[in-house]
């Protein structure tokens, strides 16, 4: 596929990266919900890193994730250059979004990764919900992936 169309080959490449991240770092519920449709090519995946003010400096990410009273997270910010971030080839696009939680340290150590699907799977009441948002990824009521749990202040 790469030799015939490099641009088209990026979609499965990015999806494989999201699959690998979820396999190694997702909890059981996240793996059950997201991996099967992604491996079956029913859903695709992306990584949302770049921001207009930061360019390739990932440590300068300003997108914020703030915990909500219901245990979900509100994500606000702006991402650019999201390869295959919007298309109609699959029913869902699973975005892995980098954001800072409150009291996060500066630089790359203060960045967390959130799973933000373009549409909420029906079986995902605890990890997803409908919410108005200023972000471009759809609903932002998410709990962070388990590897992004913020360190308590003063630790």
How is the secondary structure organized here?
Blueprint: H1 6-25, H2 28-39, E1 43-48, E2 64-67, E3 73-76, E4 92-100, E5 111-117
Parallel strand pairs: 1-4
Antiparallel strand pairs: 2-3, 4-5
Task: Provide tags for this entry.
155 residues; Butyryl-CoA Dehydrogenase, subunit A, domain 2; three-stranded mixed sheet; 2 helices; 5 strands; globular; disordered C terminus
Radius of gyration: 15 Å
Shape: globular
Assembly category: single chain
CATH architecture: Beta Barrel
CATH class: Mainly Beta
CATH fold call: Butyryl-CoA Dehydrogenase, subunit A, domain 2
Q: Which residue ranges are poorly predicted, with pLDDT under 50 across at least 5 consecutive positions?
A: 129-155
Number of domains: 1
Tell me what you see in this structure.
- Strand 2 and strand 3 form a beta hairpin.
- Helix content is 21%, strand content 19%.
- The protein is built from two helices and five strands; from the N terminus they run ααβββββ.
- The chain is globular.
- It is of the alpha+beta class.
- Helix 1 runs antiparallel to helix 2.
- The chain has a single domain, classed as Beta Barrel (Butyryl-CoA Dehydrogenase, subunit A, domain 2), CATH 2.40.110.
